[in-house]
Amino acid sequence: MSNIMPAVFIITAIGILAAVVLVLAAKFMYVPEDERIGKVQECLPGANCGACGFAGCADYAKAVVEGKAEPNCCVPGGKDTAAAVAKVMGTSAGDVVAKKAAVACQGFDCNTSKKYDYQGVTTCAAASKMFAGPSACAYGCLGFGDCVAVCQFDAIHIVNGVALVDHEKCTGCGACTKACPKSIISLIPDDVNPIVLCKNIDKGAQTRKVCSTGCIGCMKCTKVCPTSAITVTNNLASINQDLCIACMQCAEECPVNAINVPNCRIQK
């Protein structure tokens, strides 16, 4: 017993010394945190979605207080949150551009087919690694719901094999856009402008073989657009939302119905 007592005393002394050093370090190296960070964070919805461009609400709140971000970057919070954050900071909120998620695909069960029977892990990320997925269209929605799994607002569901967004519930957080391995989900301004509901860049003849509503790059939409908002690149049309006036002439002219207003409400 007497042989181990010196070791016990030494270890105890080292522990006490380490504790003293840590206490002194905490005292003299303490960096006070701006109390406004906590107040700004209380104004945020707490979704931690990253739509603001930061890791989460806490990170965004710190960036606002440090002058690295504007009060109006919280998309899910909208104008009310921007106003509350601006009030804490004593600045103006600025304009908040409301955005909603849109799925650029109409590859419903009735419009396309399967090229094989997939029996693997039921996620879009896994399925996409096997010959681009079971869908006949290599660019379309796989329908396994990776986007559904990450949505915290129950705003997206799989209907007839394709993800559809309920714009009444969507906050524009962008979580679904990051989860989609096909990159067919994007955030667009929350208005009634049409978009091209397709991402297929194959030539028209090939696209027609795999989907009855895929863009065939015929350029008829570009010819009727009064504001030159539509261009066709790599066999796929795209609409400049800043130029679009929602006249819907392109949607009426499209021979395959590939252009339309994004779904605003899920029909079940």
List keywords for this structure.
8 strands, two-stranded antiparallel sheet, 268 residues, alpha+beta, elongated, 10 helices
Query: What is the percent of helical residues?
Result: 25-40%
Strand tally, please?
Answer: 8
Shape designation = elongated
Structural class label: alpha+beta
Radius of gyration: 26 Å
How are strands sequenced across the largest beta sheet? 1-4
Q: Please give the count of helices.
A: 10
Mean pLDDT: 88
**Which regions are unreliable across 5 or more consecutive residues at pLDDT < 50?**
264-268
**Could you state the order of secondary-structure elements as H and E?**
HHHHEHHEEHEEHHEEHE
| Major sheet description | 2 strands, antiparallel
- How far apart, in Å, are the first and last alpha carbons? 77 Å
User: How much strand?
Assistant: 5-15%
